[in-house]
Amino acid sequence: MTTSLSSYLSPLHAYRTDRHIVVPTMSAAREWMKLGTHPLDFIYAPSAMGQAPALGLGLALARPDRQVIVLNGDGCQLMNLGCLVTISAQRVPNFMLIVCDNGAYEVTGNQATAATELTRPVDRPVRFAQIAAGCGIPATFEFESATDWANGLALALSTPGPTVVIWRVAVDATGTVPRSPSPAPARGRQFASELATRRTPGDLNGGLRIDAVEALRESREEH
Predict the structure, then answer these.
(1) Most CB contacts within 10 A, which of 30, 76, 151, 159?
(2) Can you say whether the dihedral through the CA atoms of 120, 137, 33, 181 is positive or negative?
(3) 3-state SS of 45-57?
(4) Which of the 8 DSSP states describes residue 177?
(5) Alpha helices (H) along 36-145
(6) Which tens digit of pLDDT belongs to each residue from 99-140?
């Protein structure tokens, strides 16, 4: 039985700290807000479909001292597969893209995507993790249940990225479009202020070792 999206989100919500910036969109934004928000959450709602990974990449490049986690839908990912090539080219160790794969455009009425087995020949499956690897993403993880994710979460988050994680989640037949928690301009200013003033705790940067962050800085200087 496929696991609900909220069951995947709960362990991540409990694990996250001030080291993490979380950018949820679409269904993930709706369910993430139900769990409670953090000053370093950027709730991408309303959103431009498919653009959350690019937004997260910019944050990861600007703030190598924090780990950026983007919660994206599979329908959104299909809208912008090319972002995977850009992300891998930037070699950001502090970036994780989580694709919530339910095979449907949930917030617009649960229409099946072109990637789901319901709309494809059985011998021609679409594998998001393989697509990511083919685009040069060095670390990919796939989870079929929230229990597996809870057990593998720490390893996935501590692996230098860029990282792509695939969650196999159930369709929520009652899923609705996420509502903006407040006017976007004000939220943007508040988020920028928190990001500028909130100190990264401990001796880790974004959940990654400092040497990984230094390697990123050196790589940028060389190029």
Answers:
(1) 76
(2) negative
(3) CCCCCCCHHHHHH
(4) P
(5) 52-62, 74-79, 83-90, 128-134
(6) 998 877 777 777 777 778 777 788 888 899 999 999 999 999
Q: How far is CA 69 from CA 22, 78, 131, 172, in A?
A: 5, 18, 19, 22
- Per-residue pLDDT of 46-104, as tens digits, reads 667 778 999 999 999 999 999 999 999 888 898 899 999 999 999 999 999 999 988 77
Question: Strand 104-105 vs strand 111-112: parallel, antiparallel, or unpaired?
Answer: antiparallel
Question: From CA 95, how far away is CA 169, in angstroms rounded?
Answer: 22
16 is written with which tokens?
A: 């996250």
Q: Name 46's Cβ contacts closer than 8 Å, sequence gap at least 6.
A: 180, 184
Instruction: Determine contact, residues 165/156, Cβ cutoff 8 Å.
Output: yes
Spatial distance between the Cα atoms of 169 and 191, rounded to a whole number of angstroms: 29
Beta-carbon count within 10 A of 177 CB:
15
Q: Where are the beta strands (DSSP E) in the chain?
A: 20-24, 67-73, 95-101, 104-105, 111-112, 139-143, 163-168
Domains, the chain, ordered by start: 5-222 (3.40.50.970)
